[in-house]
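ok trying again, last paste got cut off:
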Amino acid sequence: MSHVLAPYRAILSLPGALAFSLAGVLARFHMSMLGLGIVLMVSTLYGTPERGDYAMAGRVVSANVIAFAICSPQISKLVDRFGQARVMRPAVVFSGVSIAALVAAATAHSPEWVLYIFAVLAGAAGGSIGALVRARWSYLVKDPAQLHTAYSLESVLDEFVFVVGPVLATVLATSVAPQAGLIVAACAIVGGGLFFMAQKASEPPPRGRTAEREPSVLRAPGLLVVAAIFIGIGAIFGATDVATVAFAEEQGQKAASGVILAVFAGGSFLGGLLYGARQWASPLWRRFVLGVLALGVGVSLFFVVSTVWLLAAAMFVVGFAIAPTLINGNGLVQQFVRPTQLTEGLTWANTALTVGVAAGAPFAGQFIETSGSHGGFQVVVYAGVLAVVITLLAARSLRRHAGVIVTPAEV
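nice, full thing came through this time. structure:
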């Protein structure tokens, strides 16, 4: 195990690295708790004792995610121009206050449109903490091998957050109060975000007015291809979250839904840890394609399980493909875009994921209303097919663009 952890110890020993990485973990907890927290709160407060209102919960989640998807790239563009702390300090505070307002509105049983307002405000101001962290690594680390390890570390930490976050959100919502998970999420984005912005030594310098003379990051070759594939992957995640909660409730074990989703993330955690500990000779684009194929085909197992523990087992195995696939996708983006536009480029990739989540969650909710949880997992299968088809159609384009990009070097 020591040889697996050695590359991670090396990068975390760099000046300021441990502090901003830990701060980024705290700030990202709200992302792993927010969607599920909304589902648990809204379905409980607005549903019946026999069945939660998952369709409404999915719509509120989608409003939040769509707002994030639209606004976060624009926030990241401002970050690249003016600096992380200057832009994100007020943004994370506003997002946290908006989450608190969403909780208050739901507690008062406000009309659905009121929940949309606060969900949109919370999503619009949240920003992409993961992109900010990865931009700091790109600024701090110049060795391609170490940058591969750094990106792998952040994907592993993402999965750690998504192991603990759903469990925490579920325990709080089912054991304390339906609103408790979102209250903790609000504290995470404000406290963790301000702690992260306080790490000034590792903050990349702003590019200032040079932004006005640079072409749009969306014109970077290959970026839109990765983004399109990430939409399909995001739809898998969004549909899986909602379908898992519904499946656990049908089995009389609603509180187990967070544990099941944590197992899914746990498989990804281990997969990412092992993947990032070694260097790979095969082309990055090829590893990305293989990872998407494994993930897209593997999620079909969710549709045929009959107990929560079989579902957890299937999710653990399939989860091994998640972190390596996202690591490789972010690595391709880092190749494709200008260094001065890296935060925005990574945010567009993350935005594509959230667009997929926004589509997958309500579709799964609608299918669940008519066909039960297996209808939700049917949407998961459809999303997997979408990701696979886009990947197969785009594989040649990925190979061509990866072959012509010369900086930064492939990791």
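cool. The two ends are 22 Å apart (CA to CA). Confidence is low (pLDDT under 50) at residues 404-411.
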